[in-house]
Each structure stands twice: as C-alpha cells, then as structure tokens.
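ok here's Protein kinase domain-containing protein, seq below lol
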Amino acid sequence: MGCGGSKEVTPGAPGAGAGAGGVKTVTAGSDAQGGSATRQAGGGAPAKEQPANLTSKYELGKTLGSGSFATARVATNRETGAKVAIKTLMRNHDNFDKDLLEHEIAVMKKLDNEYCIRLLEVMEDSKAVHLVEELATGGELFDRIVEIKHFSEADCAKVIKQVILGIAHMHSLGACHRDLKPENLLMLSGDKNDEGYMKVKIADFGLSSLRPVQDASMSTVCGTPDYLAPEVIMIAAEGPRSRRKYDAKVDVWAVGVICYTMICGYPPFWSENMAEMLHLIKHGEYTFDGPSWATVTQETKDFVAFLLTTDPKKRPTSEEALKHPFLNSASLSSTSLDNTGHLKQYVESRRTGKIFRIVRVITRMEIASRRMSLAEGGSTPGASAIGGNASGNQSGDEEKGGEAKADEGGGGG
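and the structure came out like this:
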C-alpha cells in the first residue's frame, strides 16, 4: 500500500460514498493543517472519532496512481489550502483486506519522523476507507537521480543517511519496514528550488511488522526478490518447516542494495534467472568491478560491504550504520558518478514487469524443496532449493536456524 505516490490502488472514484451520510474520521499524528500533533498519550491509543465529510473538508484533485484495490489523489484542505494525498480503498473490492489495512494504519500512527510519510487522519464511510497522508510530489528516488544527471558519492551519502534515519526511527518503535526498495522512496518536492527537492520520504508500510522491541524476530516471507536479505531467502527456500527467524536488519540489507544500485546504476545481485539471482543473494556474491566502480572511493565501498554482510548477526543495526564514516565524511567526492545510463535502464526494466513478485518465487522454491525432500526419503531439506548450503560467512547458529515460529502476526506477504 502506497502513499503520496501510491502505486497499489483501484479504479474506483476516490470520493465514492463520501457525500452519502456521515464519514468517520480518526486524527493521527499532526492534523491536515500541519499543526501540532493530536495523537493521544500512550502512542498507540486510538484517536477520538468524530463526524465528518470527506468532500466538505477536502477538494479532490488529480489522480496520483491506481492499483489493485485503491486510488490515490491529490487533495486540498478547503480551510487551510494545505495539499495532501488521499488514498481511497473500496470495501467491496475482492482485494480489500481489513486486517492488513488496520495494520498499516497502526504502523503509520506510531511514526513521527521527517523521513517517513505521515498519516494525517483516517476517514471512512460505508463504501470506502480514506487515508489522508502527507503529500510527496517529487516522484521516486531513482527517477530523481536520472533526472538531475549529476549525482556524486557525497550526494549518495546525504540521501542514504536520510533513509537510514527513517528506518532507525521505525526500528526504535519496534517496527520493521520489510519492503524497502526504490519505488518506496519518494521525493518530497518536484521543485528544483525547494529544499524538499532532494529530501527522501519512506513510503508504503503495508508489509511492515509492528512488534514489541523485546520480541523482534519474524519468520513471514515478504518483500521484493532483489531486495530480500539472505536470511529471508533461506526461510523461503525451506518452506513452512523452516525454523529460521529474522529481525529488523533485513531493512539494513535492503538499504545496502539500494546504495550499491545508486552508485553504479545496476543492482549487486542480478540474473534473468530468478533462482540464480537468489543464489547470489544468499551467498553474498557481488563485486566492485566494472568501469562504474573505477573511481569510487574505498570508504564508499566499505560502507556498502558493511550493509551487505550476509550473516545477520554481524550485519550492523540501523543505529550502527549511522556511525559509519561514509555518512559523516566531509571529504567525499563531488564528481559525478557513472550511473545514470544504467540506472535509467534498471528502472525501466522494473516497470515493464521483468521483476517478479516474491509470491511466484516462493511457490517454485517450495515445490522444488518438497521434491528434494521426497527424493531424500522424506527428510526435511537441509539445503536451499536455490543453491547449496549457506556460505562460509554465515554463522553456525544461522545455519541451524532458531526455534520454530509459524508467523509473527505482522503484515502478510
């Protein structure tokens, strides 16, 4: 589920049902006028509901995007003139998932960080639920990099630091995004003269997990294949019998993949063959070879390698990543990287459907895993269907897996 630049929504009129009868509204975080926070004490406590009418409060504008079951539009607060994004989800659509929606709302209500899209309020009627969110008008991060053409290591550090500050805030609240990818990193403004032109906002919290900090392990497989951490792939390969778990460090891995791709214009792990690509991820097989990396400093390479540590026990937390010299150096190169041509091709390939969703991959892996189990006399598969055993830089404990856990109860995959 998206936000200001929502991508997963349906051809239904956003205002459908808005004018018929009353509309329930729940204020979350700061109000749509950009005023002080109205969240009740206690963080997760539900806000007070009050009668309201969507179209009497907001003038609906152009459509930002549409997908499987919702529509997102720009809207203007009639009283203040403030621009917002309103995402409308139709209740009668087959893909409408009340539990998943309530989960996304619960995550967004807890977030109060300048690098995460804010949920301003929730309004609902008999036909739809309307999420009123902070508006990000600048499009996706990778499109912005292609647009400006001149993008340096210093620029990369500034952008990545914003993303890590955003996920560090989530992690401090016991939340994990679990689907970080370039499409979910939006630019606040499209105006080159605006300070928000290079300000990043993390979006789309539909797959986020919200758990108590002291109980942070998860086992549900979700996300997008080329941004999955090795430990998640291991769980997917082993299927329902897997005893492995993962934690918020999967977000740190995803930032490493994003950072690598920003620098050279192509991802660290890539193959037209999905099984081969997942094998590369699981074993952490990537290089800093090629012309695009020739002028990149060792400090930058060290940072990328730091995030792309295959063993989650050795991989840094988001707070640890923030202390790396790459994010705090005043001497990074301002010379333009050789990345925009490759990056443009990569973005186009994702939009033309060459990147498969994880659900298709899991199905194939689990079938292969079951066949392997049967061939071995019914024993539980000890090796991944997408490759051999875990690489040498994964810990012995991670090889054995932890205690069995069916599902952590977060947003489904």
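fwiw The chain is about 30% helix and 15% strand. kinda neat tbh
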